[in-house]
Amino acid sequence: MADGNPPPLTPAAFQVVLALAGGKAHGYGIMGFVNELTGGSVQLGPGTLYRTLARLAADGLVEEITGMRENEPHDARRRYYRLTDLGWRAAVRETELLQRLLDAAADAGLSSRRADSA
Question: How far is CA 7 from the centre of its chain?
Answer without folding.
Answer: 13
